[in-house]
Every structure is written in structure tokens, then in C-alpha cells.
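re: ur question from the group chat, yeah i did fold both. here u go
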Amino acid sequence: MEIPEILSKVRSYGCDLVEVTGGEPLVQKNVHGLLRALCDAGLEVLLETGGSIGIETVDPRVKRIVDFKCPGSGMEQHNLWSNVEFLTARDEVKFVVGSREDFEWAVEKIHEMKLLTRCSVLLSPVFGVLQPARLAEWLLQERLPVRMQLQMHKHIWEPEARGV
């Protein structure tokens, strides 16, 4: 789809919030133009990125959600920690936690990178792997001032559904 078609489709939903996500949107050729066009259209725009590509060139009107990968994902080595310096109070960092080891690693990174002084921090349980109640217990025990989030799309649609 071309950008005007995307804008038309977004407007057809009658909402003022749009999130660009799925895989790694920053590898898409025209993503910066799309983000700019969505902002220019007066929409609130969120970008969810895997944290392996620099966010410094993302339009400053976009709320950036950086999903740093925990060790249990097997993708930890792709985290681009220099992204932290570009985070603002309107951005978010997310960790999807699959085990106690992932949780402890995320807590360590939250403190090491001083994330709570930069932006909101969210932790989510890996769907079908870690029970949400277990993660909630750990967060309460740790007294960590973060938000817990569920991968809502996996509760609404089939977990493997694409394009939703």
C-alpha cells in the first residue's frame, strides 16, 4: 500500500491513535515517510520497535516503544543499547519476560540504564509461557514501579494471527 492509501484506511476507522508495529517496522523503506504523514494528519502515532535499529531519526512527534529483547528470546545480542540516550519521557521501554531469569535480567537493565528516570517501563509475560499472575507476583515482591502489560492481540485473536 502507498502512504495515501494507508492514511485513507486509518481515517476509515474513525480513531485518532495509530500504532506502527509488526516485525521490525524500522527496516521498512518508507516507514519514516509514513510516520511523518500520520503525524501531519493530526494522529497520535506510536511506533513499536524491537530495539535493534537506531531510533534517533524517528519523527519526534512519534511515541517510541522500544522492546528490548530478554535473554530467553535468543535475540538479546541484537539490542542496541545506545537507543536509551534518545528516549524521552513520552517514550516507553518494554521487556517481554519468559522466565525468572529474564525477569531478573530486565530488572538489572532497568536499574543499570536508569530507565525509570527516562521513560515509562512495561513488562509483559511471554504468552503461553509465563503466567501473568507469576509476573505480577514478582513485580509486587520487587516493588518495581513499572506497568505490567499483556500481549492483548494474542488474547483477542489467535496468537499466530498476522495483520490484525
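okk and heres the other one u asked abt
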Amino acid sequence: MAIDTLAYVKELEAAGIDRNVAEAHVKALSDHALPDIATKADLGTLKSELTIRLGGMIVVATGILLAAKFFG
């Protein structure tokens, strides 16, 4: 995820925050909070993986039910 750190610092400065404090805040945010945010690409990958898993579980469950019906 990209963030315009300079614009962020300027916004904080405009609100009356000292530049050094604003820069420290942006650095902390970039280093600790932003790396953990899921992007749209992350969610798309997760959706695909979950769809494949769910499909696999449905196939296996159907196979087990059919085997139980015909052989049990």
C-alpha cells in the first residue's frame, strides 16, 4: 500500500504538529501499521484459495455420502 508521506507530514504540520513529531508519526505508521493492512490483491487471493478449499470439501463430502449409500 502506497502512502504519500510528505503530504501526510504536511497535513500534520498544518494541524499544528511539530515537523519532527509528524515525521516520527509517519515513520511509525509506515513501519508498524501499514504492512499489516490487507490490500485488494490480498483479499482476491484469499477469496480464490477459500473457493478452492470449499469446492474440495464439497467434493470429498459428496464422495463420502455416496460411498456410505452404496457400500454401507
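fwiw on the second one: Residues 38-72 form one domain. The first helix runs from residue 5 to 14. idk if thats what u expected
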